[in-house]
Write a structure and sequence with these properties.
- This protein is mainly α.
- It is built from 7 helices and no strands.
- It is globular, with a radius of gyration of 20 Å.
Length: about 160
């Protein structure tokens, strides 16, 4: 396994290999590749094209597009990172100073509420989440895979800043 410090082995998210595996199992004409970012950018247009492509009978007016898992605002992310130093909850590569009982459960069950009541505050960008050395490593690691996605599947991933050098 490459890069065991990551929660998910990076080989699992080399999408060109995963798509090829699916195409080998299910046949080239039975595997379609779509970008999640295209859905996020304009979910109604994306679904209308999807419905048309597969000749589906779906009324998109009945779909609830409200997000269920919202990104934490930067201030709450920092508060939660700090509070993790006081919970014994086991996470790989985590140290804690001492355990405050139920602190993890309080934050974990209520982060969405806390996120909503924080006035202002931006969502974090990559530099808030990942150090430059790791970003460079990931760009280098996924460079070949992402170029294959562009060339083999005609995916416009460059516009979404997929890691590439």
């Amino acid at each position: 396994m490459i890069n065991s410090e990551f929660e998910v082995p990076l080989e699992y998210i080399e999408y060109d290999k995963l798509i090829n595996l699916y195409r080998n199992y299910f046949g080239k004409n039975n595997v379609f590749v779509f970008l999640y970012e295209d859905f996020l950018e304009n979910n109604t247009e994306f679904l209308n094209n999807y419905i048309k492509l597969f000749n589906l009978d779906i009324n998109i007016e009945t779909i609830n597009f409200n997000r269920k898992n919202e990104m934490l605002k930067k201030i709450l992310l920092n508060v939660m990172r700090f509070s993790n130093r006081f919970t014994k909850y086991e996470v790989r590569n985590k140290n804690y100073y001492f355990n405050i009982p139920y602190l993890f459960e309080i934050f974990n069950k209520n982060y969405s509420f806390f996120n909503k009541i924080i006035v202002g505050g931006n969502k974090p960008n990559y530099s808030d989440l990942i150090d430059e050395e790791t970003v460079l490593f990931l760009k280098t690691y996924f460079n070949k895979s992402n170029k294959l996605l562009i060339n083999n599947y005609n995916l416009n991933i460059e516009r979404y800043n997929y890691p590439m050098l």
